[in-house]
Design a protein that fits this description.
This protein has 14 helices and eleven strands. The chain is an alpha/beta fold and 381 residues long. The longest helix is centred in the first third of the chain and has 16 residues. InterPro entries: Thiolase-like.
Length: 381
């Protein structure tokens, strides 16, 4: 049965004309603009689009990660933005995809490119590299108002997990089992950074990261870039477009340190983003409409609250929830939103019994604090 609300879409659908990524590695031996260029060139080639046809490019990256001020001076040109309308967003590429889609939906342009890149500039390796990333995370908190001592992305995940266990919302053993299933789901994928199966016992025995979480309960970080070429329906008809439409978008930001929602209700921003996306897509009942979800849970303890925030925790079977394994198998930083989108597109194209999917991503620079969430509604064509 067709939901009657779907007859009135506030958001005009946008076609995914092309999408491409670089390889995913622990660290690329390349500067960020080289990765952006590679992903963008491959996406344009896949869509059969010439650079001169681009109306807008939007890059998602951060100076603090790129290791240079105003790094968009390099990346905007690499994304096809030379002598074009172009700008940079310091957030997950999901926000860039939303901005590009809105520009097309409003009629401003016919073709737009959104690119996300993540390859932190550091000469350190192993544990020292993680310490460097923790330092960058701490710097991202607002020192003028909060000055949190020792607060990092990993610390926030550990604090939330400890609170969830203390409140008897879950147990450490349940988190380990959940992680084991996620790693197994993505083990056969060439994109997985954790290709080997891991039992719950192995996960509990992996190196401690942020008590009570162990290393394997946190994202499988990778580096690389991803580019998405979007087109209006009229323009997509003349392209080799992928079999997917973006029919709704939503974006919201979470609370700051003085509000305890970041600890007790980390799914708040995801819930607001999802509500906006469902409304713009004309979806009245997500549980009755959505067939597949690829969402981003940066820790095992965040899996249930974020899935519930999307309104999909009771309606989908396990094989339709993060079939790629999600962030437990590959989390490419600011490029994550495009990877989640690619995963749902490939499944919509390969399984015609699936019609509507959700791609969800979060910006993890400050962990659960000020959690920036994006939600895309994707439909197969």
């Amino acid at each position: 049965m067709v939901d009657p609300l779907r007859r009135h879409r506030p958001f005009d659908p946008v076609h995914v004309a092309g999408i491409a990524t670089t390889s995913w590695r622990e660290e690329h031996n390349a500067v960020v603009d080289e990765l952006v260029y590679q992903a963008t060139a491959d996406a344009l080639r896949a869509a059969n689009v010439n650079r001169n046809e681009i109306g807008l490019t939007i890059t998602a990256s951060m100076d603090i990660l790129d290791g240079r001020s105003i790094s968009s001076g390099l990346t905007n040109s690499a994304s096809g933005g030379y002598l074009k309308d172009s700008y940079r967003l310091e957030s997950d590429v999901g926000t860039a995809i939303i901005a590009a889609a809105q520009a097309i939906s409003s009629g401003d342009v016919d073709i737009a490119v959104a690119v996300g890149a993540y390859n932190p500039e550091t000469s350190t390796r192993g544990a020292l590299r993680q310490e460097f990333l923790d330092q960058l995370s701490n710097l991202a908190f607002d020192a003028h108002f909060a000055r949190p001592v020792g607060m990092t992305t990993r610390t926030s995940y550990g604090l939330h997990a400890a609170w969830a266990i203390e409140q008897q919302h879950t147990t450490l053993e349940e988190l380990a089992e959940l992680t084991s299933r996620a790693i197994a789901a993505g083990a056969g994928s060439a994109r997985s950074m954790r290709p080997e199966l891991a039992s719950a016992q192995k996960i509990l025995g992996s190196p401690p990261s942020a008590w009570p979480l162990t290393e394997l309960m946190l994202p499988a970080y990778s580096t690389g870039a991803a580019a998405v070429v979007l087109a209006s329906p009229a323009r997509a008809a003349r392209l080799t477009a992928r079999g997917a439409l973006i029919t709704g978008v939503g974006h919201a930001t979470g609370s700051y340190l003085e509000n305890t929602d970041w600890l007790k209700d980390p799914g708040a921003s995801t819930a607001r983003a999802a509500a906006s996306a469902y409304r713009s897509s004309g979806i009245g009942d997500a549980a009755d409409t959505v067939d597949l979800v690829e969402f981003t849970a940066p820790s095992a303890a965040l899996h249930q609250p974020l899935l519930a925030a999307l309104g999909l925790d009771k309606s989908l079977t396990p094989e339709h929830i993060n079939p790629s394994g999600g962030a437990a198998t590959n989390y490419p930083g600011l490029a994550n939103g495009a990877l989640r989108l690619l995963e749902v597109i490939e499944r919509l194209e390969s399984d015609h019994n699936l019609h509507t999917a959700v791609a969800h991503s979060v910006d993890t620079i400050t962990g659960t604090v000020v959690l920036d969430s994006t939600v895309l509604i994707v439909e197969g064509v």
